[in-house]
Amino acid sequence: MPQAATFQGFADPDAKFFKRLAKNNERTWFQAHKAEYEEGWNTPMKLLLGEVRGAIDRAFAHCDLAEPKVFRIFRDVRFAKDKSPYKTHVGGVLPMARTGKKVTDLPMALYFHVGADEIFGAAGHYMMEPPSLARFRAAVADPKRGPELEAILKRLARKAFEPTSHDATKRVPKGFDPEHPRAERLKCKGLTVTFPPVPKGLLASPKLVKWVADQCKTAAPLVEWLAFATA
After folding, report:
1. 64 neighbors 96 (Cβ within 8 angstroms)
2. Which end of the chain, N or C, is more open, meaning fewer C-beta atoms within 10 Å of its C-beta?
3. What one-character DSSP code corresponds to residue 101?
4. What CA–CA distance (Å, rounded) separates 3 from 24?
């Protein structure tokens, strides 16, 4: 019986494939190099996510992890001015298991991104739908849960995890005190932390699995806080 494939690294440590794709973003070029994408980037991303999932499961003692998902490389160009057909990166997620939710509206133990311009890992809740966002803001404003969140973020900041939100309101949302001590957090429409930079050369090494898993374990308290806050 053949052995199951394991993650051996992406095709090269500098993601040169995506730099070339950025210069040749057309169907003819991609079709000619599709096997290179599948073997060097898409399949390794699936293997990476699967192995990281197994390695971090115990770190999420109060939540279940869903199956990994690798996003399609095809861009949705229906409403975009830029009609380039392909993304110039490969990205995948390890979301929390929760029924009836879009993948984009789930806390994630990991988002990993390899592209022409950047290579990074992150964790958190990227784009909250209105019901999730309302529950998140209530938790941020709560006199017990809000300080718990800030304490988690401070610990992560000391380890070079950078908090960010994909979008935020200009003012504190209606119903909350504009002078609230966590006013800036209440403006956020999502909350993620970006991992420290991927060490040079690690992208093409099997050792990437452990490095990514270690970052996910460090970020696990934030992800579980978000999972309960937005449930």
Report:
1. yes
2. N
3. -
4. 36
Q: How far apart are CA 155 and CA 40, in angstroms?
A: 36
pLDDT for position 202:
96
Rounded Cα gap, residues 78 and 68, in angstroms: 27
CB of 116 within 8 A of CB of 15? yes
Q: Which helix (H) or strand (E) holds 121?
A: strand 119-125
| Whole-number pLDDT of residue 231 | 85
For the chain, list the domains and their CATH numbers: 16-230 (3.30.930.20)
Q: What was the pLDDT predicted at 105?
A: 85
Instruction: Scan for tokens 């290179």, then name that residue.
Output: 36
Cα distances (Å, whole numbers) of residue 62 to 65, 76, 103, 115, 221: 10, 35, 19, 33, 10
For residue 95, list its beta bridge partners.
108
pLDDT at 103: 79
Torsion (CA) 123, 127, 128, 130 in degrees, nearest 10: 180
- 1: confidence class by pLDDT, cuts 50, 70, 90: low
Of 186, 230, 4, the C-alpha closest to 96 is 230
Please write down the HEC assignment for all residues of 142-185: CCCHHHHHHHHHHHHHHCCCEEECCCECCCCCCCCCCCCCCHHH
